[in-house]
Amino acid sequence: MQDGFVRVAAASVPVTVADPKSNAEKIIARIRQADEKQVNLLVLPELCLTGYSCGDLFYNDLLLEQAEQQLMRVIDETERCAPVVVLGMPLRYEGRLYNCAAVIHQGKLLGLVPKTVLPNYAEFYEKRQFTSGAAFGPDNTRYITFGNEDATESCPFGTGMLFQCDSMPEFTFGVEICEDAWAPKPQSLEMALRGAMIIANPSASDEVIGKAEYRRTLISSTAGRYICGYIYANAAPEESTQDVVFSAHHLISENGALLAEHKPFQPEDDITYTEIDLHRLRSERHHNTSFTDLASPEPVVRVMFHQPVRETALSRTFEKNPFVPDDSEDLADRAELILTMQSTALKRRITHTHCKTAVVGISGGLDSTLALLVMVRAMDMLRRPRTDVVAVTMPCFGTTRRTKSNAVKLCELLGVTVRTVDITQSVKQHFIDIGHDEAVTDVTFENSQARERTQVLMDIANDIGGIVVGTGDLSELALGWATYNGDHMSMYGVNASVPKTLVRYIVRHEAMQADGELKAVLEDILATPVSPELLPVGKDGELVQKTEDLVGPYELHDFFLYYMLRFGMRPRKLFRLIRAAQGDAYDDKTLLHWLETFTRRFFIQQFKRSCLPDGVKVGTVTLSPRGDWRMPSDASSAVWMDEIAQLKQEYLK
Length: 653
Known about the structure:
The chain is of the alpha/beta class and 653 residues long. It has 2 domains: 2-305, Nitrilase/N-carbamoyl-D-aminoacid amidohydrolase; 328-651, HUPs (Rossmann fold, 3-Layer(aba) Sandwich), CATH 3.40.50. It has 21 helices and 20 strands. It has a 7-stranded mixed sheet. A 6-stranded mixed sheet has the order 5-4-3-2-1-14. It has a 5-stranded parallel sheet with strand order 18-17-16-19-20. The radius of gyration is 31 Å and the shape is elongated.
């Protein structure tokens, strides 16, 4: 359970209908199997101790007596097993029969939760045998005792219970049963509002055409709406097939994302497990004021259990590029949507300012290429000539033939106005004015060029009635990899919330749509190393300044950026996840070095983000001081850097 991960599992058992003894043996085997896999919470199907499809056999005292006795046996046999287990069984109480979920942990019955919504339509007729447990809410929880002379159990019985781990309070779950989730007002709603981070659902949902798709959508949307984990364990094909068939369709979702699934009738072993990130859910709820405003102050019965905090091996995967979809179709759709959002926003800004032109500095690099593509789309939307886009190339000491050539070719192929302003002499004169030795290629040498370029762009825009469109991306803003009041500044930043890894994929998407010379130029731009081009070129006329050699790989920084801002993850967890995502691509020393670099720069460069120009938000992670990220410029990074130092001691011995 380290770092907020709990391993959960949904499984069915090959029931023998109306044979609790045989089913108990299979349930015990399942629990032991889950224990071997270090599962923290195991959910088994509805009424699996008897079989869901017993029909009127549920009226028979012997079946019900056997179910209670075999539950006691399961409890005894699992005394040394770690998982908390949720399984379905029938229970007699005060002359009525209830469809219940028994919650068991290490030889104890923690509670019995009755089903509240009993389907009585189409193939379902549960009201024929069972009574709804709706009357036993939080303010009417009962304590019942059952068993035999040799063994008895006393536990709470009702619908208002939450089960909470004393060593990790976020590990709090509630239970609803099958139809409870399909109802207009599901039990899980109140459970989530009262603090349940996971909902367990032992179910017996038969299979008909189209139902699996609906079930998948229902469970994922419930997990997303309630910002929780959801474990849905469905009955297996061994149930009676007299009129219906069951498919062992298991689902595990986290905040709307489907983490694991055992598809209907899948032949492989149907224990389906993954890890739910409770700290991630906690962060989501913390951020979502709509959820916290609705949190219920109503009383709830909390049943405590203990599990030691130990490292949970991760079976779920983490994408190396969390900003970029894996699927090529999804990526194409995402790229088109982002380009549309960027160009629509710029179109609105151009319309509002009544500007005659839109001006951009073009370098032959990825960021300015994306900005130019967006500007062309915006002009097309406005039905204005593309020549109203004025692209300015400003060569100086570090400009290479390759990038200058690509910049000019791209502009010509797109049909925009191209202007060249060589700033070399202006910068040299500036060095003379401030008394800087041109041979000293320090930060003054570099930033003077960046600020001169911005001044040129601003003045050209003033001269021709335009606005300057910024090209800087989200990754550069996070690292502060921009010259203050240089490329840091513009009149509208179209790339402000697009990270570098995604910039590359959007440009690649545009290259794939293009043909001929345009395609070739875009592909060469994609193949060009990222560089600010502020240091003199080498003797061969090639780049000597490559950004990722200096500041680190953007695929790592974008990973840190996403998980730190989106879910508030600390360095220890970031390091764990990046190791899982990257595999053997980087060693621990390299990962920790760039994690330290990212963290240090993120804190000390906040002053640049505190005065950013306007820019369109396209994703869930942005750094606008007016929108998603408000941080004092003088915040200390000490506690984060201390944890990174601890990680270095642990992993770099």
